[in-house]
Amino acid sequence: MTVNAEIHAGGNTWRSLPAAQQPDWPDQEALRDVIAELESYPPLVFAGECDQLRQRLGAVARGEAFLLQGGDCAEAFDAVGADQIRNKLKTLLQMGAVLTYAGSVPVVKVGRIAGQYSKPRSKPTETRDGVTLPTYRGDSVNGFAFTPEARTPDPQRLKRMYQASASTLNLVRAFTTGGYADLRQVHAWNQDFVKSSPSGQRYEQLAREIDRALNFMNACGVDPEEFKTVEFYASHEALVLDYESALTRVDSRTGQLYDVSGHMVWIGERTRQLDGAHIEFASKIRNPIGVKLGPTTTPEDALTLIERLDPEREPGRLTFITRMGADKVREKLPTLVEKVTASGAQVAWICDPMHGNTFEAASGHKTRRFDDVLDEVKGFFEVHKALGTHPGGIHVELTGDDVTECVGGGDEIFVDDLHQRYETACDPRLNRSQSLDLAFLVAEMYRDQ
Ligand SMILES: O=C[C@H](O)[C@H](O)COP(=O)(O)O
Ligand SMILES: C=C(OP(=O)(O)O)C(=O)O
Fold this sequence. Notes:
Elements: H1 5-10, H2 28-40, H3 47-61, E1 66-71, H4 82-103, E2 107-112, E3 125-128, E4 131-134, H5 148-151, H6 156-177, H7 198-219, E5 232-237, H8 241-246, E6 248-250, E7 257-259, E8 264-267, H9 277-284, E9 289-293, H10 299-309, E10 318-322, H11 329-342, E11 348-351, E12 358-360, E13 366-368, H12 370-387, E14 393-397, H13 432-448
Helix pairs in contact: 2-6, 4-6, 4-7, 4-13, 7-13, 11-12, 12-13
The chain binds erythose-4-phosphate and phosphoenolpyruvate.
GO molecular function: 3-deoxy-7-phosphoheptulonate synthase activity
Pathway: Metabolic intermediate biosynthesis; chorismate biosynthesis; chorismate from D-erythrose 4-phosphate and phosphoenolpyruvate: step 1/7
InterPro entries: Aldolase_TIM, DAHP_synth_2
């Protein structure tokens, strides 16, 4: 990778276009200094890894694999600890094992991790007891505490985002390649609170079956290297464009631009304007790109996005992450899938059953019902079954911790429980046991498909 003027010619074309949801940085000179420093930092990922993920997502688009994308709504700087990272990874590994074994499908594992520090918000300000301050936009921008000091956007935080991403990615790489993710550890991933939950017990049964299969293979003299490590990728929303473009580099192998802040980046529902800066930025980089599609998306929008982001119609380049809401998915999704399929494009279709199903409980907590999450996934599978297309995966907000943020699930969380461990800085996440519940149910849907 090289840093040179060419990068900023190619990677900065977004600057002349309207960019939604950008922080109101009070000190532009400080921002420029930070950008210059970020531009000198080493890449967090290697362009070849992004290419490999694009190939894996190509298999998803062709109907040969399933994408599991999940992690925090918003990562936090003070949660970059071994336990939190391991718990999140453990959850994704357990879900991956369930989907691979019970769904009999190769699973591409991608975390919302090591870069998910920026949040688009519905309102620019928040008012409490007559005091109005800028809204919290993620740790990359401002602090969560409701004080003028914390809420003032500070560009120095972008450097902390880089450092937090680097530490997280380092540990994720160590866990996934250093023995922890070895398939012989399937039981070890279940050794804590989740073990006693209904989904934990179901998982234990599945882990025993995997063990038996491994012992059988071992007895036959087969001990594949592939079982000892896990291919795991990092993704986040490419929201704060000053950060993303400062981490965009020319790949010395190919001369093409890659955003080396993560393997895959996605553009959110609030920033996917066809003539906006985010789509322009994404069109210039070679990473696999996701775009969130909410219920107002028209088939024309989807086709224009394909034209802009995947003009070569390359399977794996573009992933549509649909987030319609359980009540709308059966009505809104079919036309989109139909028209896109008819155009000849081979995108990967992924279901985000979280963002269309948020509501405020009487206690004031933002929450989601597990049953709505499940119903949106069901609707997603029904639509693809009816059209003969491939339900390519799920995109979920989850944590490895025992939180009480979403209601329902086998180890049921009630509305009255929400206050007990409500720890998210933004949107409610599935806890570990709810995540496992979902994986088992999705595996069943996949098998039935
Ligand atoms: O995660 C998604 C968005 O950032 C979030 O839903 C916005 O939440 P808000 O409506 O509280 O701003
Ligand atoms: C903001 C998000 O989602 P959406 O863009 O779909 O609202 C998100 O996934 O964090």
